[in-house]
Amino acid sequence: MAFQVYFPKEKRPKKEPKPIVSLSKSSIVLNKLARAKIKADRLELAYDPEKRLIRIRPGTDGSALNLKKTKVHARGFFKHFKIQEKGRFEAHYDEEENALYVQL
Q1: What counts of helices (H) and strands (E) characterise the chain?
Q2: Of 75, 80, 92, 81, nearest to 24 (Cα)?
Q3: What does the pLDDT profile of the chain (104 residues) look like in tens digits?
Q4: Nearest CA among 29, 17, 11, 19 for reference residue 74
Q5: Which of 27, 43, 18 is CA-nearest to residue 83?
Q6: Separation of alpha carbons 73 and 66, rounded Å
Q7: 7, 23, 39: which is closest to 77 by C-alpha?
Q8: What CA–CA distance (Å, rounded) separates 21 from 91?
Q9: Which of 17, 64, 94, 104 is a plausible cystine mate for 42, CB 3.0–4.6 Å?
Q10: Distance separating alpha carbons of residues 65 and 44, to the nearest angstrom
Q11: Across the strands, what pairs with 47?
């Protein structure tokens, strides 16, 4: 029998944390970094159907939804725009607009 030597893999460099937005059937969940960037308890949701892009930014008027810990209940938003995607998506943060953009 021939022995084979084990060589451990090289250490991988640490990944830079990124804002992540998770979509489910009825809610949007923001990770810690995404919440830190937005810094709001009420969020305005908008959708561009041509680019399939969701915009999340702080909101104050009647269109804003409450952020409860990490989650926004968005079933009505998904139904209105017929959004059926689910999963984790990396979000792009725009400092000028103080908004997160999620490409579906």
Answers
A1: 2, 8
A2: 75
A3: 788 888 877 777 777 889 999 999 999 999 999 999 988 888 999 999 999 999 999 988 777 888 888 899 999 999 999 999 999 999 999 999 999 999 99
A4: 29
A5: 27
A6: 8
A7: 23
A8: 6
A9: 64
A10: 6
A11: 54
Q: How far apart are CA 84 and CA 26, in angstroms?
A: 10
β-strand partners of 75 = none
Q: Give yes or no for a contact between 83 and 11, defined as CB atoms under 8 angstroms apart.
A: no
C-alpha 29 chain-centroid distance: 7
Q: Are β-strands 27-30 and 53-58 bridged in parallel, bridged antiparallel, or unpaired? A: unpaired
E strand segments, 33-96 = 42-48, 53-58, 65-66, 71-73, 87-94
C-alpha–C-alpha distance, residues 36 and 8, integer Å: 36
Pair 88, 36: CB distance under 8 Å: no
pTM of the complete model: 0.79
How many residues appear in the chain? 104
